[in-house]
Amino acid sequence: MNESEHNAPAEGAGSPSGSAPASPNPTSKMARRRAREMALQGVYQWLLSGNSMATVQRHLESESESLERTDRELFVTLLRGAIGSADELRGCFEPLLSRPLAELSPIEHAILLLGSYELRHNIDTPYRVVINESIELAKGYGGTDGHKFVNGVMDKLAARLRAEEVEAARAAKR
Questions:
Q1: N or C: less crowded end of the chain, CB within 10 Å?
Q2: Alpha carbons 154 and 139: distance in angstroms, whole number
Q3: Which of 1, 37, 2, 15 is nearest to 139 (CA)?
Q4: CB neighbours of 78 closer than 8 A, spacing ≥ 6?
Q5: What is the C-alpha R_g of the chain?
Q6: Backbone dihedral angles phi then psi of residue 42, each to the nearest 5 degrees
Q7: What pLDDT does 21 receive?
Q8: What pTM was estimated for this model as a whole?
């Protein structure tokens, strides 16, 4: 995640003059973070329940108290994309795993599906942002060291799926 995104003011922090908080911006960093969190919940539910994508989406949308403060378009894109192309995405990251797919926790599995989808299909989102958001989801929802595992897999996957972007970032550091 770039420095400006990382240090962006909190959503609804108000204007610099101290007036009333600005209305929620559905494309703000926090709205995108909530979209990823909701998509994670949906993919997790799908993995455990086997319910259809539509059923999972309806359930999340009916239960979410913060849907209006969520980037709904990103939520739907990630949820439908990760579930709809799960087999293809597993084929991308499974060779990079240090253990069998069946041994992943459902949270790690869901995060890798979401991150893989975003790396592969949301090319407007910088790869570093996708990796950082995946790590943050793993820190917030996964096991103690799950974020380290997710980071390792996502780094390798970014190098495969976005080789030019990764190489350009490395070259810029030199």
A1: C
A2: 14
A3: 37
A4: 35, 36, 39, 114, 117, 118
A5: 17
A6: -70, -45
A7: 38
A8: 0.83
The angle subtended at Cα 64 by Cα 134 and Cα 110, nearest 5°, is 30
Structure tokens at 164: 């030019």
Amino acid at 130: V
Calculate helix-pair angle for 127-141, 163-173, nearest 10 degrees.
Answer: 100
| Distance (Å, whole) CA 138 – CA 77 | 20
13-61 tens-digit pLDDT: 333 334 333 444 656 889 999 999 999 999 999 999 999 999 999 999 8
Amino acid at 68: E
Question: How does DSSP classify residue 95?
Answer: G
Pick the closest to residue 136 from 147, 127, 122 (CA basis): 147
